[in-house]
UniProtKB/TrEMBL annotation:
Organism name: Chryseolinea lacunae
Alphabetized InterPro entries for the sequence: CoA-bd, NAD(P)-bd_dom_sf
Domain CoA-binding: 3-117
Name of the protein in question: CoA-binding protein
Pfam families tied to this protein: CoA_binding_2
């Protein structure tokens, strides 16, 4: 079953984990919504401008690729997307945001999107 996944910190740079996650999500037939302050496309999908806080409906998962120091300004917006879960990839762990997400009924996972996909736990 496809899970619409918002990739926060998406990038067209093939050397970055956010790019690898987009690639693997597509490989596993999940719909991706790349979101970043960077511009460009990822696998023929336009990267949406995070600063414009676009409305995104039916979000299953948010996977984070921005460090904890860059997250606070986006807490309200990301939680407003009503995801079922937020994946805090290695290096993005943030107890403050994780607690806030859980308080709003959102599952907060410290995990690696790539590992979850490969091990069929996504």
């Amino acid at each position: 079953m496809s899970k619409k996944t918002v990739i926060v910190g998406a990038t067209p740079n093939p050397g970055r984990y956010a790019y690898l996650a987009a690639s693997m999500l597509k490989e596993y037939n999940h719909e991706i919504v790349p979101l970043s302050i960077k511009t460009g496309t990822v696998f023929d999908t336009e990267i949406l401008d995070l600063r414009q806080k676009p409305i995104i409906k039916d979000v299953d998962t948010i996977t984070l690729y921005i460090g904890p120091q860059n997250q606070p300004q986006w807490y309200d917006y990301l939680l407003s997307l009503k995801p079922k879960r937020i994946i805090f990839n290695p290096g993005t762990e943030n107890p403050e945001f994780e607690q806030r997400a859980e308080a709003e009924g959102v599952e907060a996972m410290e995990a690696c999107t790539l590992v979850l996909l490969r091990s069929r736990q996504f």
